Structures are given as C-alpha cells and as structure tokens.
Amino acid sequence: MAVDIGELLGRLLSEGARHSDDTHDYHLTMVPVGDVTLPTGRVVACDPLVYAGDSPPFTVPVTPGRYPLRAWVAVIGFGPPGNRVESDRRTAALQLVIRDQPTTTWEPACVPDPAVPDPASIDEDGFAVYPVDSGTGTFADEQAVAALAGWPYERLEDAYIPAVIEAAPSPLDAITHEASGANVLLVSTGWGDGAYATFIGRGADGDVTSFVTDFRVL
Question: Residue 173's domain spans which residues?
C-alpha cells in the first residue's frame, strides 16, 4: 500500500498530537533547537559524525540564508491505559523551516542518482534514506558538512560528544566553516541508529516551506 506522505507527516508535525498503542502513549511537542546558516542554499541531511564526507546535497536548493531548525519530540508514556507515566523522550522528526507558512504538498527529498545505486539507500516504502550510525542527524549546508569532514577526531569530540547526554532532542551546535559562519547543529535520531527518509514541503505557490526527516518513532 502506498504511503500517504501528508498523513505521515501530519502525525509528526502537530503540536499536542497524541497517538497510542497497546502499551504506549506518544505526545508530540515542538522544540526549537536553533538556526542553521546555509551560505550556498544546498541542503544536506546526514549523520554528520560518521558520514559527513559521503553525503551529497538534495537536488532542490533554497535561497541562501539563516533558517530555524525544529525538533518534534515524542514524550512517551508507558503502562496500562489510564495509568501511563512518562518513560522516555525521543526525537520523532527534524524540520528545517524555509518559509513559515502552510504546506500544501509533500514530496520525497532526493540526492543526485549515484553511478552505482546502493539498495540500502531505499527503504521498504521506496523512499531515499540516509544511514545513521552515531545516533545523530542534521540539516546543514553542503559547505558546513564538507568542512566538518576535515576535522580531526579531537575537535569533533570536543564539539559534539558530550560527557553527559541530555534528553531528546539533545542538540549540539558548532560553526564548522568559519569563513561563512555555516554551522552543523545535530540532534538525536529516534530510537538511535537506522536509516531515515526526508521530505520536502511546498506551499500553494510551489515554493519550498520546509525539509523534514522522519525518525520512525511513530
């Protein structure tokens, strides 16, 4: 059965939305995590601690500028219905807001086709995904990600590997390309490692409103 992207993201990008199963409740809340500087407007979504050097930008660019990043956090309750208590918090989605206006259509975000396609880069729903092996993800400018790929491990550790990890979305931010001020602001990804799809929203005029990565919590 084809996935309805609008329905999928509507479950994630709604303040106060609640979803339940046999053992858990999920309460969605939006957490602003900072601004992302895009000097080139070429957006990359990736695990920046492992794949910064292997992550091309999406085929849809945006106007260079500075844009807010929002984490949609699932506050998870556990226990019998009617008596569930908060047991965890997980980053359910990450949203890079380009224009703060209603989104009328969604489309899968794509990178240029590689010469040799990797089957692992497509999920069971047919969407392009990026791999995560450090439990973190980001939206950042191509320039910022390329600069981060050249950092020595000691600098990476100082900026992005805290002694104590905060509850989701666990944001960490650092300027990685000093000439432009481009930064990489990462958050925790869903239940951790995996492969996650990104979608592009457009307004009624066809302009991009946001990029959203679904971390498969719901």
Answer: 5-214
